Each structure stands twice: as structure tokens, then as C-alpha cells.
């Protein structure tokens, strides 16, 4: 459990020197230094030495005097950047989140207190160091105090949020990759009071390998695409501004009866293989995916299965827009049991060989992969991409490289299909390949999912709600929106 320790140790720890034997960080440190395990973990949590936490303090002159010159320069630079990089646009009215007292608020309070869940082994294993150098100085300036907890193993964050008294915190801050956000959301949904728990605002601070959720929020805020420390600074500034926005959640069901929730994506085939096979290159950070993709292209595989989906335009023509954030029983109203055929108004893709299938809630698949340049989907909808077998290695490589700048839809690849959907069903037929959900492994079996609109809150840089449930056309190639005639219902 987090503890407050004697003052004096943190000034040394902040400058990168080890704590004295038996000493604990003071109230500004929030954590003691972990030992280095022999093996690295993953973004969702990894083996580390047990660590205590502590509470952060609002910014003070006394603490400023103890900061090194690097921290002071970072703070002044971040403040300057904040003044020129604010997301453009006029705020519009959106839904409200209820605070513990029953009042409504669209932003986090000032001052506020947050729980930071940090995976010290995520990405290149420098998350704790980055928190001290890039995050803590900005939080102190913005009157955001914190308690820091280090994850020690896979699913540790999931266990923590299941048992934590959430009334103590104004928000939960997740500093790692997308896997840790996945754990936190699923842990909240497993609580007896999940209706209230899932409304606790979340914040993503990137310190993993993919960081797709953070990159998407960075894009929605109007920032240019950046990676690494620049992305971390941008997302920390969003937390300091305190704006909240509702986010969709993807509800998934598998053939074995498993129920889980995704904050980002479900992938099958090429993308899932690259994600899992590149684990051995985790120390390379974001470059692991590029190397993994090149290796998988050399031994390109196809995967046989059937795919069906409910197009967003079909639902938009039948119903009005979804209400503002108001979690109810997370019933999957658009899908039927997996043992039954899909409803007749669904689109069925003939059973065939695929190279990949990707259901994506946000704009980015990694901090440097701008996968959905057509814009943010409407509330209750997600991006569905699939690539049929027959695509050449050269074209697939071209698509992958162009995706960095979001120009892959301009390649006019006849094997690539994109359509916004509200629900889908995917059934592997040959047992090949695996699924990944937010980068986490899922066994290869029939799976279906639907979007739960405006289901939880995240710190974001924009005030407006997602648009009404209407498919967003691609500004570059509208023809990719419409499936071939043979695939229409």
C-alpha cells in the first residue's frame, strides 16, 4: 500500500542516485526504486521488486529549489509548448460526468489527486525514470498530486482496481502501454459496483511499446504526430488541463464463453502475429513492430475464416444517435449467440483466406502507425479493416510504410477493404493464427463484438462529444468505404 515516508530522500532519487539503505522517498517521491529483475515483462505488467508508493505534493517554492536544472528547463519548455500547441476549435457541449458528491463536472477538479499505476518494465524499462523527469514536474505546476503504485506482474493492475476504494481518487492514471489500460478497464468492469467504477476518469501516459491510445488522444487534441518523450509530454499536458471526454468500449464474446472488453483493437492474422512475435524485441521500443513486420513479410501467411459485420450506416438508418455517457447493463444488443447465424441485415464476407483482420476503435494502432486517417468514428462505431489473400509482399510492405503518415489508403490496394461498423463476428476455420486484444493474447476461436458507445471517460484535449452515429467518409478515398457488391447483405 502507498506510504508517506520521511523527507530528504527524494531530492537524491530525483537526480537518478540510489536511495540510502533503509531510506524511503518523501512525500513528493511517491515510490521507491525497484530492483532489476532478470527478465523483462510486458506492457500489461511485469515482474518487479515490490515497491511502496507515496503521495505527491502540489508545486511549492521549496520543492522548486530542490529540482535540478534539467527539470527546470523541461518545465519552462513545456509551459511554452503548452501556449502554442493547444488543440484548435471551438468547444461544444457534451455529456457530463458525476462526481462523488452527486454534482456534475466536465473537467477534473483543481487541485486534484490521482492514482498513478506504472509498469516499470514496460517498453524499454524506463517508465519510472520518465515519470520523474517528464511527468512529475508538470503535475506539480498544475496542482495535481498523486500516489504512485508499481505493477509487479501481469494482471496486477487489474487486481488493484478491483479492490481499490475509488472514492479516494479523482482519476486513474495509467503509465505504460495499451495492455495496462486494458487491465484497468477490465478490472473496473469486474467490480460489483462496475456501473459507478467505470465512470472514474482514466488517463493514458505512454511508456510502453505501442502507446496507441495515447497517440490517438494526442491526435484528437490537435497535436502533430510525435513519439517517445514528446508524446509523453503532450499527454501529461492534457492531464494538467483536466478536460474529460467520453470514449467507446468494445465488448467481446468468445466461443468458450469468455467476456472481455477492449479499449483499442482486436487483431487477427498478420498484425496479431507481428505484435506477439516481436515481444522478444521489446527493448527496441517502437522499432520492435517494424522489425517484426519485416520478418513476418518474409514468411507471409494466410488465414482461412469467415467474417460478418453490421455496417454503421445500417444502424444509423434504423436508430438515432446514442445517449450521452450513462452506463447500463453491458448487454450486447446487436449480436446473437455465436452458435446462431448472424442477423439477416448483417453483411457477410464470403468465407475466404485473409492476411489480416483489424477492428479498431481509435485513429492509431501504435504511436507511429496512423491506421485510421479517415477520422474518429462516430459514437458506437469502429473501424474495420481487412486484407484478402493474394496481396503481394511488396504491396503489404508499401501499406505498412505508408501507414506511418496515414497515407496507406492512397495506395489503392484492391485487397484492402475498410468499412465503419458497430458489430462484427470472426470465425477462424483452419486453427491458424492468434487474436490479440489491445496487444494481449487471445486464443484462436470464434469471437464477436460490438461497440458500447460513450461508455467511460478519459482525459482528453477536446471538449466536443463524438459525432452522431453516422459513418465518417475518408477524405482521400471514399470508394474504400463501400464493400464490393458481392459482400453486401
Describe the structure.
This protein is an alpha+beta fold and 489 residues long. Among the domains are: 108-242, Probable inorganic polyphosphate/atp-NAD kinase, domain 1 (Rossmann fold); 248-317 and 340-455, Tumour Suppressor Smad4 (Sandwich). 26% of the residues lie in helices and 23% in strands. The strands form three sheets. Strands 7, 8, 9, 10, 11, 12, 13, 14, 15 and 16 form a ten-stranded antiparallel β-sheet that branches. The radius of gyration is 22 Å and the shape is globular. The termini are far apart. It is an enzyme of class 2 (transferase). It catalyses: a sphingoid base + ATP = a sphingoid 1-phosphate + ADP + H(+); L-seryl-[protein] + acetyl-CoA = O-acetyl-L-seryl-[protein] + CoA.
Question: What keywords describe this structure?
Answer:
single chain, 489 residues, alpha+beta, Rossmann fold, Tumour Suppressor Smad4, 10-stranded antiparallel β-sheet, 4-stranded parallel β-sheet, 13 helices, 16 strands, 23% strand, globular, disordered C terminus
The CA-CA distance between the termini, in Å, is 55 Å
Q: Might you state the CATH topology name of the domain at 248-317 and 340-455? A: Tumour Suppressor Smad4
Helical region count?
13
- In the predicted model, the low-confidence regions spanning at least 5 consecutive residues are 1-104, 320-328, 465-489
CATH architecture of the domain at 248-317 and 340-455: Sandwich
The portion of residues assigned to helices is 25-40%
Query: From N to C, what is the helix and strand string?
Result: HHHEEEHEHEHHEHHEEEHHEHEEHEEEE
Mean pLDDT: 74
The CATH class name of the domain at 248-317 and 340-455 reads Mainly Beta
| Number of beta strands | 16
User: What is the alpha-carbon Rg in Å?
Assistant: 22 Å
- Supply the helix-strand structural class: alpha+beta
Overall outline: globular
Largest sheet: 10 strands, antiparallel
Fraction of residues in β-strands: 15-25%
Protein name: Sphingosine kinase 1
Biased composition (Polar residues): 26-35
Region (Disordered): 1-106, 466-489
Biased composition (Basic and acidic residues): 65-75
Amino acid at each position: 500500500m502507498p506510504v508517506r515516508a520521511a523527507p530528504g530522500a527524494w531530492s537524491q532519487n530525483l537526480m537518478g542516485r540510489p536511495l540510502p539503505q533503509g531510506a524511503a522517498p518523501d512525500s513528493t517521491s511517491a515510490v521507491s526504486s525497484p530492483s532489476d529483475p532478470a527478465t523483462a515483462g510486458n506492457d500489461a505488467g511485469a515482474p518487479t521488486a515490490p515497491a511502496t508508493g507515496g503521495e505527491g505534493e502540489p508545486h511549492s517554492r521549496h520543492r522548486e529549489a530542490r529540482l535540478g536544472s534539467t527539470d527546470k528547463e523541461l518545465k519552462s519548455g513545456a509551459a511554452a509548448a503548452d501556449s502554442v500547441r493547444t488543440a484548435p476549435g471551438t468547444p461544444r457541449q457534451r455529456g457530463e460526468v458525476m462526481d462523488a458528491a452527486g454534482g456534475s463536472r466536465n473537467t477534473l477538479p483543481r487541485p486534484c489527486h490521482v492514482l498513478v499505476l506504472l509498469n516499470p518494465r514496460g517498453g524499454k524499462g524506463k517508465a519510472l525514470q520518465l515519470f520523474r523527469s517528464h511527468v512529475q514536474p508538470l503535475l506539480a505546476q498544475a496542482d495535481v498530486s498523486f500516489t504512485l503504485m508499481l505493477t509487479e506482474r501481469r494482471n496486477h493492475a487489474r487486481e488493484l482496481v478491483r479492490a481499490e476504494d475509488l472514492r479516494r481518487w479523482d482519476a486513474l492514471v495509467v503509465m505504460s502501454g495499451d495492455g495496462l489500460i486494458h487491465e484497468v478497464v477490465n478490472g473496473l468492469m469486474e467490480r460489483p459496483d462496475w456501473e459507478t467504477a467505470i465512470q472514474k476518469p482514466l488517463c493514458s501516459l505512454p511508456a510502453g511499446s505501442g502507446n496507441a491510445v495515447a497517440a490517438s488522444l494526442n491526435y484528437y487534441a490537435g497535436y502533430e504526430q510525435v513519439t517517445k518523450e514528446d508524446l509523453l509530454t503532450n499527454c501529461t499536458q492534457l492531464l494538467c488541463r483536466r478536460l474529460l471526454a467520453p470514449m467507446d468500449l468494445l465488448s467481446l464474446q468468445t466461443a468458450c464463453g469468455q467476456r472481455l472488453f477492449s479499449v483499442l483493437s482486436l487483431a487477427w492474422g498478420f498484425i496479431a502475429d507481428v505484435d506477439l512475435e516481436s515481444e522478444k524485441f521489446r527493448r527496441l521500443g517502437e522499432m520492435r513492430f517494424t522489425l517484426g513486420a519485416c520478418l513476418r513479410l518474409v514468411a507471409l501467411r494466410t488465414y482461412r475464416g469467415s467474417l460478418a459485420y453490421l455496417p454503421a450506416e445500417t444502424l444509423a438508418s434504423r436508430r438515432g444517435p446514442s445517449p450521452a455517457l450513462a452506463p447500463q447493463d453491458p448487454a450486447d444488443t446487436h449480436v446473437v449467440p455465436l452458435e446462431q447465424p448472424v442477423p439477416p441485415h448483417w453483411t457477410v464476407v464470403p468465407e475466404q483466406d485473409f492476411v489480416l483482420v483489424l477492428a479498431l476503435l481509435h485513429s492509431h494502432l501504435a504511436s507511429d502507425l496512423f491506421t485510421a486517417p479517415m477520422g474518429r468514428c462516430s459514437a458506437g462505431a469502429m473501424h474495420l479493416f481487412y486484407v484478402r489473400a493474394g496481396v503481394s509482399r511488396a504491396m503489404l510492405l508499401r501499406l505498412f510504410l505508408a501507414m506511418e503518415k496515414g497515407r496507406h489508403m492512397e495506395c489503392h490496394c484492391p485487397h484492402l477493404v475498410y468499412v465503419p461498423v458497430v458489430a462484427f463476428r470472426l470465425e477462424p476455420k483452419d486453427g491458424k493464427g492468434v487474436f490479440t486484444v489491445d496487444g494481449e493474447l487471445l486464443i484462436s476461436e470464434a469471437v464477436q463484438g460490438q461497440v458500447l458507445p460513450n461508455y467511460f471517460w478519459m482525459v482528453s484535449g477536446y471538449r466536443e462529444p463524438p459525432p452522431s452515429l453516422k459513418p465518417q467518409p475518408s477524405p482521400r478515398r471514399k470508394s474504400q468505404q463501400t464493400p464490393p457488391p458481392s459482400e453486401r447483405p
